[in-house]
Fold this sequence. Notes:
The protein is mainly alpha-helical. It has one domain. Helices cover 61% and strands 7% of the residues. The protein contains 9 helices and 5 strands; from the N terminus they run βββααααααββααα. The strands form 2 sheets. The protein has a 3-stranded mixed sheet, with no helix packed on it. A hairpin with a 7-residue loop joins strand 4 and strand 5. Helix 2 packs antiparallel against helix 4, helix 7 packs antiparallel against helix 8 and helix 8 runs antiparallel to helix 9.
Amino acid sequence: MLFTHDISAILFQVGPLEVRWYGVLFATGLGLNYWLLTWIFKREKYDQKLLDSLVIWLFFGLVIGARLGHIVFYEIDYYLANPLQILQIWRGGLASHGAAIGLAIAYFGWCRRHKVNFSKYINAIVVPMPLTAGFVRLGNFFNSEIVGYPTGGDYGVIFARLGEDFARHPVQLYSMLMNWLVFAILFWVYKKKYKKMPPLSIMFLYLLLQFVGRFIVEFWKELHGPLPVGFPLAMGQLLSTIPIAIALIYFARLLWKKR
């Protein structure tokens, strides 16, 4: 099945102000994230007064980390030549690996600032993360960016705004579905198993599911980053091996202790 994607990246325009699909979807993902975090804080009887400051720290960690991650890992030469575009995040260009690093640094800084144990809120934080990430990937689709390889057949998406007349894998939609599947699993585990699980287990489950999914999706993704020609892995796959290995070590240690 073929779909010709010629939808404008601009949802509507008022004078010089452009409201883009990417920005609306990003804001929707963040809004749902905040709503779900509020619900979890109430369910766990956490201090609601800390939530707003936590969200602010995480927001800046997410945006700065994701943007810098995309620049450094994938298009460093382009942004060095066009530095003014670094701040134009509404045009897309956020990397999940950079987001994970930025969020971890921001949360660690927030914990130090408020003298909170790292493990206390981390499981609550990671549950809605893939929900937001799915909306970001849908925004990438509307921007016609981070495209997949050509399908070589009569199925896929023709990205007409790129001036193409052949079909590609809609890898942005693959990633969107992968993220929402990870969210569904995490949410189910949180509701059904959380009280019986070790303190950091949902965080490590998130790392394992998220980056295994990312590793798989990369097989259809064309953007590989500044790696040598012939390198067996894409940049996203190479970066994903680190959190996957960390999560596997954690769960292996849990199994060893139980035995």
